[in-house]
């Protein structure tokens, strides 16, 4: 079973849109060929969202063997705390979360430095598990549609989802200045994680996928190479 934490070719496809150089296109095509090969090589593929499942199927993964088991978070470890309980301060604190070994985090930080920080304080943003962990802690998250892609979050209920960097900066400022809003969105975020992204809530999906794979184990597989068309990024 192949667990696709993310489809890396999607990242490089987006990079080509902003940098249509031969080098960027070549990197995208290398990742596309690599992941196409392995998507077709395994008995089953786990993806983290319906959007990523669709992308995997378009690039050769068998629809019957491509399943969604979302990322989860340990809701007993990541729990809400009182504002300032660790380090009391006159103003709320915000963090940028993400390893600089990962290219999307570097690109996001550069955008924050150029576009957001001139308008606000340093801000909190992230994708996937980082978003879920912050939500589990009852923290209001300011993110972009790409940053929370596949999580099915509702704007100003589960998180603040902003389309451009000016709106992003305004959302950060609003979150910092409005304590009741921070509290209500943070509480809703915690409830959403408990209901949809806790280990308990996703265990059923994982178990069902094992059952489905076992039931289809001896069924013949279609030729994956028949699905390989042109690169869908272009």
Task: For the structure shown, list the relevant keywords.
two-stranded parallel ribbon; 8 helices; Rossmann fold; 2 domains; single chain; 234 residues; mainly alpha; 47% helix; three-stranded parallel beta sheet
Can you walk through the features of this model?
The protein is mostly helical and 234 residues long. It has 8 helices and 5 strands. The strands form 2 sheets. The chain has a 3-stranded parallel beta sheet, sandwiched between helices. A two-stranded parallel sheet has the order 4-5. The radius of gyration is 20 Å and the shape is flat. The relative contact order is 0.14. The model is unreliable at 84-88 and 122-127 (pLDDT under 50).
Largest sheet: 3 strands, parallel
pLDDT under 50 segments (min length 5)?
84-88, 122-127
Structural class: mainly alpha
Helices and strands, in order, run as EHHEHEHHEEHHH
Distance between the termini: 29 Å
Which percent bin holds the helix content?
A: 40-55%
Present the secondary structure layout.
Layout: E1 2-3, H1 8-18, H2 22-41, E2 45-47, H3 50-58, E3 66-68, H4 103-116, H5 129-136, E4 142-143, E5 160-161, H6 165-177, H7 179-196, H8 199-215
Parallel strand pairs: 1-2, 2-3, 4-5
């Amino acid at each position: 079973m192949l667990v696709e934490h993310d489809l890396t070719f999607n990242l490089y496809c987006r990079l080509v849109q902003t940098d249509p150089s031969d080098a960027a296109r070549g990197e995208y095509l290398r990742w596309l060929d690599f992941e196409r090969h392995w998507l077709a090589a395994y008995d089953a593929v786990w993806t983290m969202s319906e959007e990523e499942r669709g992308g995997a199927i378009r690039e050769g993964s068998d629809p019957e063997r491509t399943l969604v088991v979302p990322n989860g978070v340990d809701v007993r470890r990541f729990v809400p705390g009182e504002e300032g309980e660790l380090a009391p301060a006159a103003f709320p604190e915000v963090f940028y979360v993400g390893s600089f070994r990962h290219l999307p985090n570097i690109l996001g930080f550069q955008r924050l430095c150029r576009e957001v920080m001139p308008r606000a304080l340093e801000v909190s943003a992230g994708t996937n598990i980082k978003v879920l962990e912050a939500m589990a802690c009852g923290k209001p998250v300011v993110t972009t549609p790409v940053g929370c892609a596949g999580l099915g979050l509702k704007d100003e209920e589960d998180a603040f989802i902003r389309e451009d960097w000016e709106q992003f900066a305004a959302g950060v400022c609003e979150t910092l200045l409005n304590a009741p809003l921070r509290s209500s969105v943070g509480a809703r975020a915690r409830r959403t994680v408990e209901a949809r992204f806790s280990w308990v809530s996703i265990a059923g999906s994982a178990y069902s996928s094992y059952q489905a794979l076992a039931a289809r184990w001896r069924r013949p597989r279609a030729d994956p190479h028949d699905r390989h068309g042109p690169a869908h990024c272009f």
